[in-house]
Amino acid sequence: NEYLGSCHCQSVTWTAKLDVAEHVLCHCRTCQQLGGGPYSCNQIIPKEAISILTGSPKVYSYTGASGKPVQCFYCGNCTSHIYHHQAVMPDKIIIRTLLLNGGPEMPATGEIFGEGRLSWVEELQENLTNGTKKHP
């Protein structure tokens, strides 16, 4: 299926083809630092499965866990991360699935870099009700 995606400011839009509508959570420190959250929501898809419709993403390069370069494609205006391209996987990209239409409804079906998972992530739903800590 093809999904429409957009950055926060709508300057960059794209379509992405996903075989299955799902998220793989990444707990690596880079995703935490780039996104400011405990994990990112992603899926690895073929490089040709994304098509930029409007705008032109900027590129930031960094060294990934593999020791090889990773290119991060993002909106130069609002800084939403659209996808990453790792040199270690030349024919694939890692798309940010939460930016796709229907993203909030997609289930999380896997995770990577679990060793970086913040200790409180699994406990959130258990311990919080409407954003407030439950009292025994």
From TrEMBL:
Keyword Nucleus: no
Residues in CENP-V/GFA domain copies: 3-114
UniProt-recorded Gene Ontology molecular function terms: carbon-sulfur lyase activity; metal ion binding
InterPro entries (UniProt xref): CENP-V/GFA (IPR006913), Mss4-like_sf (IPR011057)
Keyword Translocase listed: no
SUPFAM superfamilies membership: Mss4-like (SSF51316)
Top-rank taxon: Eukaryota
Name this polypeptide is given: CENP-V/GFA domain-containing protein
Family: Belongs to the Gfa family.
Protein keywords: Lyase, Metal-binding, Zinc
Organism, scientific name: Hyaloscypha hepaticicola
